[in-house]
Design a protein that fits this description.
By secondary structure, this protein is mostly helical. It has helices at residues 3-18, 40-45, 63-100, 103-152, 170-195, 201-204, 210-219, 256-273; strands at residues 20-22, 37-39. It has one domain (3-30, 38-273).
Length: 282
């Protein structure tokens, strides 16, 4: 099968909705009344520290306001956890279907599985950030309660309301940066698969990619698809070492390359929706 035909199949896979998310399913605490879909660019923006719905500091909030915000964080974390399960199930489903498909169709399931893996990692990244912020507010809550308790009994508070308790969240930030770097590498793979028109399929989708091997193991009965879990530090539990991450500095504000990649995917998605044929450029 030539590259053009394979790319058309990839376009159809993308057009089936694997690169969009529904606003009613977002973790932003919305009412779910909107039926419009947002692109993955919007979901990607939600992983930044400056996310508009997440206060980054308790500031001068009252104890009641702090407790309320912690509850909101808990609700968001629960929703994200549910989404992680949904993406993992979709990933397993693509692996199982790819294991039973012919070579041409299997390649489409590989791409769709990688998309689900990326969506899982986006959600995981968001969950880590929510956990980080929640711990900051939980620390502020403990500080405020202790301060108010001492003041109520006429004693001088041992700590100020603004707080001097140090809580080391460097480990969380490091984990977020690691996931971001791994995500960058995987998005580059998808971008290559969608954009390249002068390369053969074998040079774009490596037959040694974990998804291919997992499908082969499922096809031969060596592995049950339900036993597959997504490892955010690698591709999946396929027993492969993590690959080196080329380029980029990571960090929560360094997302321009990822956004550009998703925009390319969306342009292809739009062309398919408009029934515009995807043709070779060469």
């Amino acid at each position: 099968m030539g590259w053009s035909e394979w790319r058309d199949r990839v376009a159809q896979a993308i057009a089936s909705g694997d690169v969009t998310t529904d606003t009613a399913d977002s973790d932003d605490g919305g009412s779910g009344s909107s039926s419009a879909s947002t692109t993955v660019v919007s979901e990607l923006a939600g992983t930044r520290d400056s996310h508009h719905n997440d206060p980054t500091s308790p500031g001068e909030c009252s104890l009641r306001e702090i407790k309320k915000q912690i509850i909101i964080f808990d609700q968001k974390i629960d929703r994200i956890s549910n989404k992680l399960g949904e993406h993992e199930q979709a990933y397993r489903r693509e692996l199982a279907q790819g294991a039973e498909a012919d070579d041409a169709t299997q390649q489409v399931h590989v791409v769709k599985a990688v998309v689900q893996r990326n969506r899982y990692q986006l959600a995981h990244l968001r969950r880590l950030q929510l956990l980080k912020n929640r711990m900051l507010w939980e620390t502020a809550k403990a500080q405020r309660e202790l301060s108010e308790d001492f003041s109520k009994h006429g004693f001088e508070a041992p700590i100020s309301a603004s707080g001097n308790i140090e809580f080391d969240i460097e480990e969380f930030q490091q984990k977020i940066d690691e996931v971001n770097a791994e995500l960058r590498y995987q998005l580059e793979e998808i971008e290559t698969a969608v954009q390249s028109s002068g390369r053969g399929v074998d040079s774009v989708v490596d037959s040694n990619t974990p998804e291919y091997r997992l499908m082969n193991e499922i096809a031969t009965g060596e592995r049950n698809p339900e036993s597959v879990t997504i490892d955010v530090e690698g591709a999946a539990d396929a027993g492969t070492a993590s690959q080196d991450i080329p380029g980029g500095t990571g960090g929560m504000n360094d997302f321009q390359e990822e956004v550009g990649m998703f925009e390319s995917l969306e342009k292809l998605h739009s062309r398919v929706d408009q029934q515009t044929p995807v043709t070779d450029d060469h």
